[in-house]
Amino acid sequence: MSSVTAQLRSAIERRASPNVAGRRFSVVLLFFVLILVGIFSALQAVRRPFWYDEICTVTISRLPNMPAIWDALDNGADGNPPPYYAVARLARRLTTDDHLGYRLPSIVGAWAVILCTYLILCRRLDRLSALTGAVFVLATPMAAYATEARPYALMVGCAAGAILAWQRIADRRMYSIVLALMLAAALCLHYYAILIWPAFILGEAAVLIAARRFRPYVWAALLVGATPLVVFAPMLFRLRQYYGAHIWARASIRQLVSSFDLLLGIGAHSGLVFAVASSGALMYWIYSKTGAVSRSDENGATTSSTLVGEFTIALGFLWLPVVATAAGMISRGGMTTRYMLPAVLGGSLVVGYLTSHAVARVKVLLLLVFLANYALSSGGSVRRAVFGSLLDERAGAAREVAAILDRSRELRLPAVVSSGMDYLPMVYYKPPDASGQLYVLSDAQAALKFANSDSLELGLLVLSRYSKLQVENYRNFASKHREFLLFSRGRGGHDWWPERLAQDGDSVILLEGSTADIKLYKVVVNSDFEQAQPAVVLRKATPAGGKHFDNGIDRP
User: Fold this and answer.
1) CB of 500 within 8 A of CB of 488?
2) Is 34 within 8 Å of 40 (Cβ atoms)?
3) How far is CA 240 from CA 236, 380, 475, 555, in A?
4) In this structure, are residues 452 and 252 in contact, taking their beta carbons and an 8 Å threshold?
């Protein structure tokens, strides 16, 4: 038994201590990957127009100061904590391009995820396996979120830093401070970062059970790291109060399965199969490898408990969609797959652990497949940069808005955008020299009927207080404009106004020049409105008991 144990411990040490040439090669390859990610992500960031959520980031970040940002978030203008917008404001100052500036924190987050994953794995494994696990990140949606002006990628980067700090606590207790800071930073970027806590709690509990060792400084770090949630709890409560009645995304078992596929899979149910199979293989490794080491001596028990804790944290991240779905169903709050993005860390760690048992050729093949997949997905941006057409999509968005406004002037009719998801980007990309206004209509009751949620309408109403948006109550608008143009992409979901108007008996006439993807209607309102309805308003009330947020709408 002692000889077997010695061989196992020797194998682990060999994985963690490669020769000098192998170490240098892995470092060079790692930096090549980071440079590649930086270049491709920057090109993607410059090329792609902003979408609705990103323009929310831009709108809030452009407010004059942090008190104004705090007030906007206090009113439900967006769903992230205030520190994220401070980061976005700072990043924007580093470059002259809005699209690159506001997306720069996400690029840094992607770098942090890859680097931290590599450092976590190379402590236990050979460098090639560590690289394979780290590069697996690029085969997940993390690659797309690395070019988005939202906090998800940077939040996952902080989570990766927290895992790295937890792993190093066995060497120096001072890393518990880093753990607390990384966890707090993640919560300062996104409220749902709290979903990573169960993984750390389970990991530390595994150390407690395996080594019978209570580490109060680690538990203190987990507690201190959660304090931002206490600070922002009033804001989070008001956000839930404002949107919670008919939140746009509800957690469900169906969403749980689809989340695994979107985060870790390549086809139907492949993500869930990957999670189950890799978890089983890793559990086998835990018992076969660390069990023998722990029986050898006291040092072996310490090594074993740390390994078990690391594996438990990896599995906790891998199965984070289950925690997220359960939390969403219990709290009846909003839940969507991007809130579960830290699960890709679990997938990357598990891939690294399992590929360490493969022969070198398999590792190299997997590494090349992950890199080739990433390069191919980014090839469009590279080609556009080479041929000087990198900004064509942004210019196309501006031309689309200008064409609608030209048609509006030609027919002397106001222009209405059917979907709020389209409206906000169109207002953002409206050419400075284009005359005329774009409108979006608000009818919360109709939104509940056709889209099962009024979240988009409520969001636009509050954003209109902080930017130049023409959000009009439908009855008021229709009483003044019996005819108007309606722009629609015909994609259903939030784009339901053509159907609603047709059901009301109004004339909805498809104009010439419309295509399968872009439709322009002339609407003639046939309905009679006896009395114009008051506009939907948001308001704060301050009763005697203190500050109170009114759920805030006078519905027609």
Assistant:
1) no
2) no
3) 6, 40, 28, 18
4) no
Altogether, the residues listed in the chain come to a count of: 556
What would you measure as the largest C-alpha separation in the chain, in angstroms?
Answer: 92
Q: How would you write the pLDDT of the chain (556 residues) with one tens digit per residue?
A: 344 334 444 444 445 455 565 678 888 999 999 999 999 999 999 999 999 999 999 999 999 999 999 999 999 999 999 999 999 999 999 999 999 999 999 999 999 999 999 999 998 888 999 999 999 999 999 999 999 999 999 999 999 999 999 999 988 999 999 999 999 999 999 999 999 999 999 999 999 988 788 999 999 999 999 999 999 999 988 888 888 777 777 788 888 888 989 998 776 678 888 889 988 888 877 666 554 334 333 444 455 677 888 999 999 999 999 999 998 888 887 888 899 999 999 999 999 999 988 898 999 999 999 999 999 988 888 888 888 888 999 999 999 999 999 999 999 999 999 999 999 999 999 998 888 889 999 998 898 889 888 888 999 999 999 998 999 999 999 999 999 999 999 877 789 999 999 999 999 999 987 787 889 999 999 877 654 444 433 333 333 333 333 333 333 2
H or E stretch at 442: strand 438-442
Question: Which DSSP letter does residue 276 get?
Answer: H
Retrieve residue 169's tokens: 């606590």
Please, are residues 73 and 84 in contact by the beta-carbon 8 Å criterion?
A: no
Tell how strand 483-488 and strand 415-417 pair up: parallel
Q: Cα(264)–Cα(227) distance, rounded to whole angstroms? A: 31
Nearest to 94 by CA among 27, 47, 129, 45: 45
Distance between CA atoms of 120 and 126, rounded to whole angstroms?
11
Q: Where are the alpha helices (DSSP H) in 93-215?
A: 98-122, 127-135, 142-145, 152-168, 175-189, 197-211
Tokens 């109403």 locate to 461
E strand or H helix that includes residue 341: none
| Residue recorded with tokens 């001596």 | 297
Question: Would the pTM count as exceeding 0.70?
Answer: yes
Q: How far apart are CA 551 and CA 546, in angstroms?
A: 16
Closest alpha carbon to 163 in 118, 128, 132, 133:
118
